[in-house]
Amino acid sequence: MEKLQSIRGTKDILPDSIYFWQFIFDKFKGISNQFNYKEIRTPIFEKTEVFHRSIGETTDIVNKEMYTFLDRGGESITLRPEATAALVRSVIQNSLLHESNLLRLWYFGPFFRYERPQKGRLRQFHQYGAELHGSPFPEADAETIFLAIALIKSIGISKFKLLINSLGNENSRQIYRKELIKFLQENENHLSQESQVRMQTNPLRVLDSKEERDIEILQNAPIILNFLDEESNLHFDTLKKILQSQEINFEIDTKLVRGLDYYSHSVFEFRSTMLGSQDSFGGGGRYDNLFEQLGGKQTPAVGFAFGIERLLLILENANLLPNAANAPDYYVISQNIEYIHYVNKITNILREKGKSVITDVSRKSLKAQLRDANKLNVSTVIIIGEDEFKNNQFTLKNLDTSEQKILEFNSIQNL
Ligand code: AMP
């Protein structure tokens, strides 16, 4: 029969690489704790409306990339393409902001987008993200950026670029939007096909275009920062000052808009030269209107997400992957299947003491078990031969030095 294959754009995370995933998860969990962010896990699917109402009807994600289907009850369901909206849904539903008016959350898990698969771009990918709900102030934006940088550094990445921009408040953005549309209309015939369509549906996204002809035209486009009102300017200036005071390097990218509709004020993105064409490995921004869009009361918020596959690519390309997990502490080798109960007794005691122990389960010869131990990089083996079995003893052998000694059963406790 034909062998079955996994779905295009999905990847098995095999035992060989799971260590790196655990490494990132553990580091991120530790740093999140230091910043007092609490983990939250929401379902992998939501009512489609959660994403329709938040991400924006005219974005690529909602238009082209969502895994949406009717379930057997006829309800429209979507596999989550991102977390922010789902988290806000959960915070409102569970009244999490009633207990305190500030909430710090983080998450780690799979997300789904029907994109064209390529290096660093998958249909099921994973994100770590953090969200800070309840503060309208730039200090909150800065805190999430501090957290993001601490996370990146915790896994050994020191070279990256931080880009920031401001989309201003609703008022500034509306005025800018009009100016931008005017400019795009004047240049419509020179824009790429895709940008001509985007111009109608989501003009800010045209700034994001990677097409050379668009990039050239956009050099003369009006700049959003010139349209910020006093409130928006103050927010952005304060954020920049906080970052500068901590010697955090950033570049202002006036074309940075990020894909989603719900952002306002600060947006930011992290890029690496280790990634090729998909060079962004994370980003985020402020979203002060999302709670209301999802039926909650107005709550200012800011957050960001990292793509785990992209972080792993950076680690791999920069030769920064950590050494894999250690070999087992002991291999208990048995000369004869008859000694199985004695072997199990020793193995169980060692495991209860917290040691990692392996034994043979496929009735290999003593020699083959020793070869096995070598292959697994085990340096200490416990050998149960006929004499050891009869005398309630065991042989402890160091495979690196070949030193060995016979010990009484009770001395297992001292290992
Ligand atoms: P976004 O939610 O689009 O702002 O993406 C945040 C981060 O998630 C990106 O910078 C990527 O690192 C990662 N990411 C987004 N989409 C994908 C994808 N299709 N495959 C792999 N990583 C992704």
Comma- or semicolon-separated keywords:
21% strand, five-stranded mixed β-sheet, 16 strands, Rossmann fold, alpha+beta, 415 residues, BirA Bifunctional Protein, domain 2
Please provide a written account of the structure.
With 415 residues, the protein is an alpha+beta fold. The model has no long low-confidence stretch (mean pLDDT 94). Helix 1 (15-34) runs antiparallel to helix 6 (138-154) and helix 6 packs parallel to helix 10. It is built from 15 helices and 16 strands. The protein is elongated, with a radius of gyration of 28 Å. Helix content is 38%, strand content 21%. The protein binds adenosine monophosphate. Adenosine monophosphate (AMP) binds at residues 82, 113, 115, 120-122, 125, 127, 259, 280-283, 305, 307, 309-310.
- What is the third-level CATH name, the topology of the largest domain? BirA Bifunctional Protein, domain 2
Helix content: 25-40%
Classified by CATH, the class of the largest domain is Alpha Beta
Q: What's the β-strand tally?
A: 16
Largest sheet, spatial ordering of strands: 1-5-6-11-10-9-7-8
**Cα-atom radius of gyration:** 28 Å
How many domains make up the coordinates?
2
Record the SSE blueprint.
Layout: H1 15-34, E1 38-39, E2 45-47, H2 48-55, H3 60-65, E3 67-70, E4 76-79, H4 84-93, H5 96-99, E5 103-112, E6 124-133, H6 138-154, E7 161-166, H7 170-186, H8 193-201, H9 212-218, H10 230-245, E8 251-252, E9 264-271, E10 280-286, H11 290-293, E11 301-307, H12 308-317, E12 330-334, H13 340-352, E13 357-359, H14 366-375, E14 380-384, H15 386-391, E15 393-398, E16 404-408
Parallel strand pairs: 1-5, 7-8, 12-13, 12-14
Antiparallel strand pairs: 2-4, 3-4, 5-6, 6-11, 7-9, 9-10, 10-11, 14-15, 15-16
Helix pairs in contact: 1-6, 6-10
